[in-house]
Amino acid sequence: MPTARSRRGSPRPKISETPETPETPETPETAIAALRARIRALEQGRSPCAFEDSTSGMSPAVPGVMPLVMSLGVPAIDAHLPDGGLRLAGLHEIAGAREEWDDAVVAGFCLALLGRLTAVRGKGGEPVLWAARRADLYGPGVAGLMGPRAVHPGRLILVRARRDAEVLWALEEGLRAPATRSAGIGLGAVVGEVGEPDGTAMRRLQLAAETAGRPCFLLRRRLYAGRAATSAVALTRWRVGALPSTTIDPATGLAGLPGRPRWRVELLRCRGAVPGSFTMEWDDAAGGFALAAPVRDRPVAPRTTISAAAQRRAG
Hints:
Strand content: 15-25%
Number of helices: 7
CATH superfamily of the domain at 88-242 and 255-291: P-loop containing nucleotide triphosphate hydrolases
CATH topology of the domain at 88-242 and 255-291: Rossmann fold
Radius of gyration: 26 Å
Structural class: alpha/beta
Order of helices and strands: HEEHEEHEHEHEHEEEEEH
CATH architecture of the domain at 88-242 and 255-291: 3-Layer(aba) Sandwich
């Protein structure tokens, strides 16, 4: 009779068979829920693919369907967005509320979003590509404005371009760039300042951001165009205006200095959500946003009186 031996005559090891775990049968309710989630993702222009991440503040809104989203730290705003936060793999437009001087306000709000991204990811070493037609982004001012959660100026990759087309090309190349082999670090996000970008280039940016799984923030600078044209390509479109900052408590010894940055933020367009308006502050210590108290009905600051002697010296 044949025996269970190998060619060299040694007995073959016994293979213990483990019983397979029976799969949980799919009920009609779970199948319908998954189908609805896939249809909702397709209607919103998103890919119904699985995307898992256990990082605090970043999770799929619907497991197995929704892409990675970032909580803004304000439950009221997160609940207003369709994915429970800002979806990162896509294109987001930010414009100023005033045509005259809100370019700096737009840049400040974008830097706050990058600070929030740094806070929830816990990866302060991810560089950010910033492409613009003017080299007016001041690195030390970035660190001072956003506090400890700010993108380190040494991690800002500044690209100077001559036209909007070159800015969009740099953003697309940045989104497609793989992580470096030596450090294993890729770009955390890309930011571009444009006036009136081409619609075809914006669609390419949206596809590149979805493929790379990285956010692309497009800042509409009125300096380059008298009137920024609207677009239906981006996932979200925001309009930001500056508001007076909060008053610092005199007990801190910093009375008279500016408080937290405050904005009037309008969500003009979002796939799967209705427009909304919020008054937001940036908390640099916590690395997140907060809903600001109403500006109206605040106590008026006491008027400082100048003595007659001081007036004579000043005059």
